[in-house]
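S1.2 Input.
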Amino acid sequence: MTALIDVDHLRTFIAIAESGSFTKAADLVHKTQSAVSMQMKRLEERVGRPIFARDGRFSKLTEDGERLLDYARRIIKLNFEVLATFADPELSGRVRLGLPDDYADRYLPEIMARFSRAYPSVELTVLCEPSSNLIGHIEADELDIAIITATETQKATETFRQERLLWVTSSRHSTHTEAPLPLALGHAYCCWRRSAMECLDRVGKPYRVLYSSGNAGAISAAVLAGLAISVLPESGLRPGMRVLSPADGFPPLPSCRIGLVRNPHISSTLADALAEHIISSLDNLSEAAQAAE
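S1.3 Output.
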């Protein structure tokens, strides 16, 4: 039997075609650039034709790519129509979602759009706080589901995404050469903060925490202004940031794992539906497992 084209691959393909760049598309579909490249390699293998022609920094479609784009848009449109058709039209009520603000900036627009299309009568209440706070809200029965950074002390019930944690600085400044090194990090309970400081301690690089905030936007602003360097997951990179490597004197950091925590006190059809939308939108661990087969 002929293998079918993966709908998620087509969604990524459309994002590349519309943005003109693998890098920009990775942000749009919330995947790493390497995952996007792997998906497009598989898509080209599936159709048996080259669909991209490099044009400098941009990704230009070949003639076959242009033909595929028309089919891809129609398939994605039909996919949404099918989901909307079989979604329970009577399903209504409220579901409570918690996630850190940096994840909200990157992931929430797509989650909300997909969920609202499938369940237009459901009210989605969103709370943005650090992962440690969200665990407390789950235990207090104040949230139905939370997206958190999974650590040894804060284990998600379902870990679905993994990204590289990276050192970042402003591409227009040389902040990373200053001594002691100025840092912009989360609060004391932030696991990324602990990873950064432990890493610098191991290599004997002097540093000082110049900015401390639980707000991802504030941290990014300090980095982009050239005031400090920080650590961010790969999907958190913004234009104007540069990744620092071992060649710059910055050793590798542990990876960042993201997962779900569900409220154990209740069984909610709405929460289960939201969880499915979140995982289908953001999952990259299943792709890695498939690639390893």
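S1.4 Remarks. The first helix runs from residue 7 to 19.
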